[in-house]
Structures are given as structure tokens and as C-alpha cells.
Specification:
Elements: E1 4-10, H1 15-21, H2 25-33, E2 35-40, H3 47-56, H4 60-63, H5 81-88, E3 94-98, H6 101-104, H7 117-121, E4 125-129, H8 132-135, H9 137-154, E5 159-164, H10 166-174, H11 179-206, E6 210-215, H12 231-234, E7 235-243, H13 259-266
Bound molecules: zinc ion.
Length: about 270
């Protein structure tokens, strides 16, 4: 049985801040038990270019997403991880849930995750879009966590991506040293714990193999904000935990666009 992949994107997460705070026990446990490497994101350290690189395995020049407006992007020629997993094996089922519309909502800019309406109609691809920009990410991330736990438990899609954005929202508004930022991290950590438990339950029940992978698209400055080329803004990471299988044997350090090929190789 092929490994199932659950990629969890935590927007704007300073991993060191999260770990030092003691408010992210799940993140800490996954890092300690799993594969870990630091990643350095390219400039500008904005969500649009960052997620486009991490999710399509493309450089900024290749996907041409320059900012969060996505004007002139080349994403139709740079399919996302979920689509590429399907092209690699047409039996692949996929799932994406995000509160930042640019990642998943075909109505707005982007989306980075392709709609693939035919597969949605055939129940092979499921996309859950929410709007945290309008309704706030604390509430929307909690909804995303609920639908993601449900999807993992009920369907166990072969390749999934789930995005949490509350920490980035708090970081932008109050800075990475604020209590707001740490509270957001602690709530996201609880979402991660629920997802991990849902995967572990499937592994126990169906003897499946899963890889739970955690990443961020950029850091947050202490005073709040990102986009520049400081080490804190460019700092990202990959944590990958094998559940029902070994941790992946990936190199220590690679370019951000190198993640998708590594993930696809786990499905080979
Ligand atoms: Zn971001």
C-alpha cells in the first residue's frame, strides 16, 4: 500500500518562537520524533510566492507569483502537488482545505491548488475553501481543522493539504513576540494534535502508511510583518513524521521547490 501524505501548512510560523514558548507541544513532539530540516525561503517572503513554490515545486521565476495579487501568474503551467500526484497515478484521491482563498478558491486570485472540477464531480478530489480574510482566521482555522479531521477519518485521501493562517494574522497585527501570536500558535497546535490522532487511528484501523509533513511559507518579524530578506522572515522548515512507516530519508537542507519532488517520490 502506498504512503498517504498529509501536508500541513502553518502560515507565518517562527518555529523557534513556537518551540521556545512551550505552547506548541504537538509541534515539538513531531519535530523530535520525525525528520527535520531548516529551509530558507526566497525573497519576497510573501504568502503568494512562498506557497506557490512549496506547493508546485517551482521557483519564483517559474510560477511568476510575485505577491498576493497573483497578477500574471503562470500557475496553470505549474500544477500543484495534488494534481501531480494524480498525473503520477490516476487512482490518487486528493483533498485540500484552506481559509486563505488564494490557495483553493477558484473564484478569486490563483488558486494555487487547481480546481480539477471533473475529479471533484467524480469524488476523487475534494476542496474546502473558507474566507479567513473576511471572517477572521481564529474561527476559520477551527472550521478547517474540523473538516480536515472529518476528511482524514472518513475518506483518508491519498494526498492532502491543509492550511492554517491564524498565527500569520496575529503576527502581522501584533508581532511575533505578542501574546496574540503565541495564543494563535497554541490553538493551531491543538488542531495539529487532532489531525495526528485522526491519522494514527486510521493507521491502527486499516494498517495504512502515512506521512504527516509540516511546513511554513515564511517567518514573522518580532515587530510584525514579513516580505523582506532577513533571516527570520526567510526561515522555514520541514518536519515529516512517518506514521505506520519510517520517517523519510530526505537530505539535510534543500531548496523550497525541492519539497514536491520528495513528496511525489514517497508515492512512487
Ligand atoms: Zn504567509
Amino acid at each position: 500500500m502506498k504512503t498517504k501524505i498529509l501536508l500541513l501548512g502553518i502560515d507565518g510560523l517562527n518555529l523557534s518562537t513556537a518551540l521556545d514558548s512551550g505552547r506548541a507541544p504537538t509541534l515539538e513532539a513531531l519535530k523530535n520524533a520525525g525528520y527535520f530540516t531548516a529551509l530558507t525561503m526566497d525573497v519576497p517572503t510573501l504568502s503568494g510566492p512562498g506557497w506557490s513554490t512549496l506547493l508546485t515545486g517551482s521557483t519564483h521565476a517559474q510560477h511568476a507569483v510575485k505577491d498576493n495579487l497573483f497578477a500574471g501568474h503562470n500557475l496553470l503551467n505549474r500544477p500543484d502537488l495534488l494534481s501531480r500526484a494524480l498525473y503520477q497515478d490516476q487512482s490518487t484521491t486528493t483533498f485540500a482545505a484552506a481559509g486563505w482563498p488564494a490557495l483553493v478558491d477558484p473564484v478569486g486570485v490563483g488558486p494555487v491548488i487547481q480546481e480539477r472540477r471533473e475529479q471533484q464531480r467524480a469524488d476523487r478530489h475534494r476542496v474546502i475553501a473558507r474566507d479567513g480574510e473576511t471572517y477572521g482566521y481564529q474561527r476559520v482555522d477551527a472550521e478547517i481543522a474540523d473538516v480536515a479531521v472529518y476528511a482524514v477519518t472518513k475518506f483518508g485521501h491519498d494526498v492532502g493539504f491543509v492550511h492554517f493562517c491564524e498565527a500569520d494574522e496575529a503576527g502581522d497585527l501584533y508581532g511575533a513576540q505578542s501574546e496574540h501570536y503565541l495564543e494563535a500558535i497554541s490553538r493551531i497546535d491543538a488542531h495539529l494534535a487532532r489531525l495526528h490522532a485522526a491519522v494514527a487511528k486510521r493507521v491502527e484501523k486499516y494498517e495504512e502508511k502515512w506521512l504527516m509533513v509540516l511546513i511554513t511559507d515564511h517567518g514573522q518579524l518580532d515587530e510584525g510583518g514579513h516580505g523582506g530578506d532577513s533571516p527570520q522572515e526567510r526561515a522555514s522548515f520541514v518536519i515529516a513524521d512517518g506514521i505506520g512507516r519510517d520517517n523519510p530519508d530526505w537530505p539535510d537542507g534543500f531548496a523550497p521547490e525541492g519539497l514536491v519532488p520528495l513528496l511525489l517520490a514517497e508515492r512512487a
